[in-house]
Amino acid sequence: MQNIINRFSWDDLKVVLAVGEHGNLSRASEALDMNHSTLFRRLGAIESVLGLSLFLRRRSQYVPTVPGAELISLAHRVEDDVNGVLRSITEEVRGFSGVIRITTSDALLYDYLVPLIATFTDKNPKISFVVSVGNESANLSEGQADIAFRATYNVPEHLSGRKVGSATWAVYGSRTKWTGKHAEMAQLGELEWSSFSHSLSKLKAFTWVEENIAPEKVRFRGNSILSVAAAVAGGIGVGLLPCMHGDEQENLVRISPVFAEIKEDLWFLAHPDVRKSAKVREFMNHCIQYLTDERENIFGIVP
């Protein structure tokens, strides 16, 4: 086996890939800028070294065998890795440039991402951003976005990322109605509420309201954190909101203790292939460092 490994090279893998992609020696030899007869001998020598037939010869068509298909798949992966490393090296030498696409919620954009992007673009003026706001989960595997910034307690297995903090929740009321007042837990069921629509049913806050507040007490439903916060600030009952948002709003006041059972972890997520991009890695590292340095101010806790 070691003898085979020593005699097999990346150039051999490129030969197998070219024949597999083009399906015959004529087109493969053109792609490789190699003489037809030379390519024929090279392929024969590779199969001899491996002791395997990599292609079935059918007239002018070369059809991969199972071992051939496995080597072609390996060649694609190696090619992708090499190209990814070369792009990263080029970006790091010439400076980061291009577009980073992010999907997030309105509240996370408002409370976190805007300052993160602003501080990053100050240092990287050739980077631009496209941000999609919504509460649905973007399919990072299909390239709908490079990065997802989400509050979640259930990270998909196919994604990689970093947890950067936790969002705690409490009940808020409008400052005009609730300044200097406090709502006891026993009172909450007697109050009118603003809450979330079923599109946000995955939120623990949605579940808590559904289980503890009578439906007729819910006078407003919104499909985003900002819409519910606006309703509460406008005097439409009280509502469960993330403290990171509610504490910063002039028209809101916290009227309950933090709910220990309602907490969402904050994650920067990306598909493993996307994280090979130098600019994406650089931005995620910037965000993580910024949130770590500002943890006390942002999350209200000491690092």
H/E element string?
HHHHEEHEHEEEHEHEHEHEEHH
Q: Give a short account of the largest sheet.
A: 7 strands, mixed
Individual helix count: 12
Please state the oligomeric state of the protein chains shown.
Answer: single chain
Mean pLDDT: 84
Q: How many domains, as an integer?
A: 3
The name CATH uses for the topology of the largest domain is: D-Maltodextrin-Binding Protein, domain 2
Point out poorly predicted stretches.
none
**Cα radius of gyration in angstroms:** 28 Å
Please give the alpha-carbon distance between the first and last residues: 52 Å
Number of strands: 11
> How does CATH name the architecture of the largest domain?
3-Layer(aba) Sandwich
β-strand percent reads 15-25%
- Share of residues in helices: 40-55%
What would you give as the CATH superfamily of the largest domain? Answer: Periplasmic binding protein-like II
CATH class of the largest domain: Alpha Beta
Principal-axes shape call: elongated
* Class per helix and strand makeup: alpha/beta
Summarize the structure.
With 303 residues, the protein is α/β, with parallel strands linked by helices.
Summary tags:
303 residues, alpha/beta, Arc Repressor Mutant, subunit A, D-Maltodextrin-Binding Protein, domain 2, 3 domains, seven-stranded mixed β-sheet, two-stranded antiparallel ribbon, 45% helix, 22% strand
What's the layout of helices and strands?
Elements: H1 2-7, H2 10-22, H3 25-32, H4 36-50, E1 55-58, E2 61-64, H5 66-94, E3 98-104, H6 106-123, E4 127-133, E5 147-152, E6 160-174, H7 175-178, E7 193-196, H8 204-212, E8 218-222, H9 225-233, E9 239-242, H10 243-246, E10 252-254, E11 263-270, H11 278-293, H12 295-299
Parallel strand pairs: 3-4, 3-5, 7-8
Antiparallel strand pairs: 1-2, 5-11, 6-9, 6-10, 6-11
Helix pairs in contact: 2-3, 2-5
GO biological process, one term: DNA-templated transcription
Family: Belongs to the LysR transcriptional regulatory family.
Pfam family, one: HTH_1
